[in-house]
Amino acid sequence: AQSVAQPEDQVNVAEGNPLTVKCTYSVSGNPYLFWYVQYPNRGLQFLLKYITGDNLVKGSYGFEAEFNKSQTSFHLKKPSALVSDSALYFCAVRRTYSSASKIIFGSGTRLSIRP
Amino acid sequence: EAGVTQFPSHSVIEKGQTVTLRCDPISGHDNLYWYRRVMGKEIKFLLHFVKESKQDESGMPNNRFLAERTGGTYSTLKVQPAELEDSGVYFCASSLQTGGPHEQYFGPGTRLTVT
């Protein structure tokens, strides 16, 4: 069965420190990988995606994610956290065949940045 | 460009009642998706429309759920009769193309509470 695991329900980081939100996946083949963020009372916003090529992808708001095929991981990172980064983050995958449509999400990680 | 909109933002109903959720996708997006997040768990796929046709409804939990997209524009998701376990946040998303690395654009969600 296809699945996405976010092992941490919550991550707490001090402002200015680097942050990492972990994600691993179990999907056959080479899926597309995504990170979405949900701010309070807002919808899911796309942050970044991995399709192919360079294992480090850069996205919105200074976030980046590192793809590791051998570990089937796609961890979200940011060198210096801001209080405004506090939100709920979802890792997601989608299979790559042409008719694939549905996104498979992880359970989400709440990121809390303290001043 | 207006994003994906959903109505209502919040609905509280009693068990056994009927509720209809509405989603207006981004103009020109043929693909429309419904997802839901129950009890703080992962966001799960419900179904996918391409224009007015159901492309994939493998995620629909049971026959109490009915989704329609007459005319290929907005979509409704009806729950009848609602049960306690239907409580959660229902997200709608749209995309220009089917499959591929294209991100889906999400609405703010409808929070459904069944008492």
Provide a descriptive summary of the structure in words:
The complex is a heterodimer of chains A (115) and B (115). By secondary structure, chain A is mainly beta. Helix content of chain A is 0%, strand content 50%. Chain A has no helices and twelve strands. In chain A, a hairpin with a 4-residue loop joins strand 8 and strand 9 (73-78). The radius of gyration of chain A is 14 Å and the shape is globular. The model of chain A has no long low-confidence stretch (mean pLDDT 92). Chain B is mainly beta and 115 residues long. In chain B, the strands form two sheets. In chain B, strands 2, 4, 5, 6, 9, 10 and 11 form a seven-stranded mixed sheet that branches. Chain B has a four-stranded antiparallel sheet with strand order 1-3-8-7, with no helix packed on it. In chain B, a hairpin with a 6-residue loop joins strand 7 and strand 8 (75-79). Chain B is globular. The A-B interface holds A 4, 32, 34, 36, 41-46, 49, 51, 90, 92, 94, 96-108 and B 3-4, 6, 31, 33, 35, 37, 40-45, 48, 55-56, 58-59, 91, 93, 98-101, 103-109.
